[in-house]
Amino acid sequence: MMKYLLFLSIFPVFYLQAQCDNLVVNPYAEEGLTGWSFINDIGEVSSEGWAIEIEQSDNRTFKCSHNWITKNQEIDLSTHYTVNYLNTEPEIYVQEMYKGYATTDDETHYNDLYYLHVELRDASRNIIASFTEGTEENPLIATQNWQTSNHTFSSYGPGLRYIYIESGGKDNENWLGGEGGGYGTLIDSAVVKLSIDNTINFDGETLFSNTENAIYQWLNCNNNFEVILGSTSKSFTPTSIGDYALEINVNGCIDTSACQTINSLSIIENNKTRPIEIYPNPSSGELNIELNNYYDNVEVSLKSISGKLISKQFYKNTRNIRFEINQQSGLYIIETKIGSNLNSSLIQIVE
To answer: According to CATH, where is 2.60.120.260 located in the chain?
Structure first.
């Protein structure tokens, strides 16, 4: 059949920042001492020595003791992301903020001590990569202003499963009662965020995402980023010149690609078929699976986000399937198998 050939100018027109979830539980001390494991000054698992400081701005922070004490938590990424996605080595941004504590105007009383340590771990909890800024022996020195310790992990290799974050603090004045404040470093705003690959490529006919197992929505940049109805697949074939972008949702982390410009059209012979489409997405549970042709045997599997098989159904001589998901709200994987060809789609179920 006759089909348009599209020519693409690869340059950004507009870019929207990612809105990715912070994976840390209770990062801002708003929920007290929950979400963290605490180690006291003699190495016991205990929150002894920790307190919550409420600043004048009503901001809540963790407050250390006069001796070294630490807090930590381990994040299980398998509850948020698929193994395939984690093996793409997404960039990981980590940070925490720290500040000295005192009850006097003497600046030296704010020079409390702090360190941050982060590990990327595989399924056996072997360390793949790590970041350390400060130690108990050679700590960072706090001041009366907030400072940030941060790092971005990249190119660390496959196998990522857990992220371990640990930080500690200590009073520099060695208690000193009312003069030193009686407590050590203030700690706040722990962040662990995974980025997603928001780039899109062009094969001479079709725009496509580099990110697997996501929720996709193609946008018309020339019309205030209007949603292109029905265009929720990994790939998109425009039929007119213009600027197009892709919004990608990976487990709640939403990012939008740069706009890509299709600046001319010509006509060539093309026998390619369009990909499988599954819609609506997000969905309340009732889905349409639209194939690109009639097929004698179609296998549709529903899996959890961790890859566990929930159900498998078989269809004969069909091109349109009504598929129902009777599960709790969340993210699921639908695998559609036709012969040796397997198509995977990430579906969000909402109430």
So the answer is: 21-194
